[in-house]
Task: structure prediction
Amino acid sequence: LQSNNPIDQEILTLLESFSAGINYYLDTTKVLPLEFQFLNYRPSNWQPKDTLAFIKYMSEMLTWSYSDFTNILIKNAIGSAAFQELFGYPLPYQIPIVPDFGSDFNTSLKKSLNTGDITANLQSVYSHLSADVLKVIVKNPHEQQFLGKEEVQGSNNWVASGNKTATGKPILCNDMHLGFDLPGIWYEAHLIKEGSDWNIYGFFLAGVPFPIVGHNNYVAWGYTNTAFDVIDWYFYDRINETHYLYKGKPTKFGEISYQIAVRGQKAVSFTIKTTVHGPVFEGLVSASDFPEYEDKIIACQWMGQKVTNEARAIYLFSRAKNRQDFNHASEFFATPAQNMIYADIYGNIGIRPTGQVPIRNDTGIPAWHSGNGTMLYNGSAGQGEWIGFLPFEALPHSENPAQGYLCSANQIVAGPAYTKNYTLQNPTTISNGYRARRINALLASGENLTIKDMQGFLLDVYSVKVANVAPYLIATLEAVPIKTALQTAVLAELNKWDYQMLTTSSAATIFNVWFERFRYQTFQDDVINLGGPRFPPNTILEWLVKNNASSHWFDKNTTPQVETRDDIILLALTDTLEALVDYFGTEDISAWKWGKLHQLKIDHLTGLSPLGFGPIEVNGTGETVSPFSGYRLWKGDGIRLDYSDHGSSERMIIDLGNMNNSLSIIPSGERGLTNSKHYTDLLEMYLKGEYHEQFFGYTTANSFAQLPIESIIYFKAGGN
Result:
C-alpha cells in the first residue's frame, strides 16, 4: 500500500479498523476455539500486514511449481521430439477462453520416433541438479503437493448474456476448485453501509475484509486460475560463502534475516541468502549424490516475491459500478493471475485473464532447452532474465462476444494467432480442457437459460472424456470373437451408459479404472516416477486413440511383438476386470458402483478425525464440470479406495436482472466452531446439490429479523 495514494489510505484505514475488531475479540474472549486449546496457543494481535500476507499465500497455493525440474528429467528420458509430442504447447482440443483472440485450435500432434535426441550437456548438470532437487522435494509433504496434480487446482466460471437468458439480462456463475478443509476456506457475508450504495455480497477469506468474488448493486465477478508461468528456477556456481558467479563476475549474495519465536525458548534466528533473481534454497543439492556439483546453488524468481497490490484490486472490485471501473481495478491484480469473468446490470459481459506475466530473455539457452520459463536455467550464465512484463492492454480479453457467452475452466487463454507471439501459460499446468468443452457445449446450445438451468450446469457430471474414448473401448471389445461371460456383461453395461459419472453407475467404475490402467500400459515404459508417475495429459491419449492406432507409444518395449492401440485396450481391460473382481469379491458387475470407489473425505485443519466429515459417496470425477478429484484408483497392481480431497470450494449464481434471485453455497458452514449447528450445515446442503438465497434486496439490518440469517453485526462510528 502506498502512503501517497488516497485509495490505499482508505484501504489501510479499513484494514486497521478490521484488525482492531479482531483484536478486541482476542482481548475479551477468555475461551478460544477448540483448536487453540489443543495447541495451548493464543494468537498475537492481528495487523493489516497479516491480511496482505494471506493474500500472498493464495498466490503460493495457485502458482508455485516444480515443473521446471520435472520437465528437464522427462525430456532427458524420452527425447526432445517425444517431449514436444506428449507435453508440448498447445494441447489438442482446446477451446480458448477468449474467443476474439485467435479462434480455436486445430491441433495435430507431431509424431516422434522416441529416439532420445538429448545432448550430453542436458544429461549432466541440468538433469542431475533437477533429479537432486526433486529427491528432496518428494520427502516434504507440503512441497510434494506441487509435483503434479491432475485437474486439481482448477475452477469454472461462465456468463450468459441476455440474448441467451429468459430474463434478457446476464447470469454469471463461478465455482473455484480448491482443497477441502474444515473449517472451510470461505465464508459468505453481506456488507451493507446504510445510507450509501455500499451493498456487497460475496465469499470472504478469514482475515480479509473484502470479498474475493461476489457482486454489488452493479457488477458481479468470479475467478478461475490462468496457469500463467510466473516462477523460474536457476542454478549458479558458488565461489565461496559470500559470493557466486553471475555473468562472468563474482557477485555478493544478498541477505535477509528472520527470527522465529519458539514458545519457552529463545527465538531462532536465521539468514536467507539471495541472488539477483531471488532467494537461495539451501540443501537442495546433495554433494553425496553428485560431488562434482557440490558448488552449485539453487534459487528461484517468483511473482509472489514481488511487491504488488492485490488488496487495491480486491477493494476496487467491490466498489466498481461498470466495466471501466472493473478493468481499472484488474490492473492491480498481479498474482495469482486469474481469468476474471464479469457481468453488469446494464447487460454487458466480459472476461479478461489478468496478472503480471514475465517476458523472458532466452538468448543463449541450449538448443534443447524449451525456454519461456519451462525448464531450469543457468543463472550464472544469465539465462532466463525477466526483462519486463506483458502490458495489461496486451492481455487477451473479450466483451459482449457474438456467441453470447463466455467461460473459463483453466484451459488455454487464447488461440494460435495470439499464442504464437505470447506463450503465457505453463504447458504442464493448463487444464486438459474437458470441463471447458462441456461448458461450451451447454452454453452454445442453451436458449432462454434460467437460474435453474445454471444450477444443473454447476452439478453436471457428464464426461466428455468418456464420450470421446469409450466408443473405442466398446468397439474393440465387440470385435473379440469369443467373449467371456464377464466381458459380455461389461459390454452390455457400457453400451447402455449415458456417460454420466453417477455414484450408482457400474459403467463409470469400469471405465475409470480401465482408463487409468490403459494410460499406464501405454506410457509406463517411458514415464518417470516422481513420487507418482508423470503421465501426459489425458487429451494426448485421447488424440492418439482417435487418430493414431499404430502409434509407437502403444508398442511395449518389453515384448518382442508390436502392440497397437487395440492390444493395449484389451490388455488394460483384462487387468481392470481382474482387479475389480478382486476388489469387490464378485463378478456381479451390479455391485461395482462408482460410489464405492469415489468418495469424499474432508479433514479438519488439525487432522483430528472426529472433527472431519465423511467419507461419503459423490458423483463426478476431476474432469467433469462438477468435480471431485485428487485421487488415484490404482496402487501397484490393485485397486484401492483413495478419497477425493479437492473440488468446488463454493458455488455462486448471480442474476443481473434481479439480484434477489441469486444463489450460493459453500462446502462447510458459516461457523468454524465444531460444536455449532452451523459447522457443516451448508456442507450437507452442498452435497445434496442445494443452494441458499442471498437475500440481497434486504438493505437494512432490520430487514433480516425473521430470516434464517446466522448473525448480524452492527458497526457504529467511534468504535462503540
Remarks:
- The first strand starts at residue 155 and ends at 160.
